[in-house]
Amino acid sequence: MMRLMRLSWLILLLAALAVRPAWAQGPRPPTDDEVNAIARKLYCPVCENTPLDVCPTQACAQWRSLIRQMLAEGKTEQEIVQYFVDNYGARVLNEPPRQGFHWLAYLVPPLAILVGVAIVVQAFRAMKRPGPAAPTARSDQEALLDEYLLRLEEELRRQR
Predict the structure, then answer these.
(1) 3-state secondary structure of 141
(2) Where are the domains of the chain?
(3) What is the pLDDT of residues 108-126, one digit of tens each?
(4) What average pLDDT score do residues 147-151 get?
(5) H-type alpha helices, the chain
(6) What is the pTM (predicted TM-score) of this model?
(7) Does the domain formed by 27-95 have CATH 3.40.50.300?
């Protein structure tokens, strides 16, 4: 009898461990981190140069809500960003698209830096080169000074 009782307790224990709660199989709601990861790639339509994930305006709150809804519907990050670009233009992106005229935003700054460095290097080289000596200007001044000193000495001799 004791053996049967131990066996039944063991079976009950194993059965309790084997049973797990059933998890809901529906789609889970998107987290704030997922919404903000997409919102960081967009700028506020109202405020200038304010990322969507940190902007406190009502428009941005609505956009974040729309992003959350689109994520819940199963849309990808590229589809969501493209939706905003289609409706509001490329100005809502935090970085310009790498196509067409927008390539200048990626090419001009490095080129400007290189040109600036080249100008500074040339200026330093020009400072190091010995310039043409100006002996004539110096000797003209010395000649005037010598003439003045001679006159001064002559006047002093006369007064003695």
Answers:
(1) helix
(2) 27-95, 98-128
(3) 788 889 888 889 889 888 8
(4) 88
(5) 2-18, 32-39, 58-72, 77-88, 104-128, 135-159
(6) 0.50
(7) no
- Which residue in 64, 16, 19 sits closest to 43, CA to CA? 64
In this prediction, residue 134 has a pLDDT band, given cuts at 50, 70 and 90, of: low
Pairs from 150-159 (Cβ < 8 Å, separation ≥ 24):
none
Question: CA 26, CA 22: separation in Å to the nearest integer?
Answer: 12
- Least confident segment among 61-70, 74-83, 130-139: 130-139
β-strand partners of 51? 43
91-100 long-range contacts, Cβ below 8 Å, gap at least 24? 91/43, 92/42, 92/43, 92/45, 93/41, 93/42, 93/43, 94/40, 94/41, 94/42, 94/43, 94/51
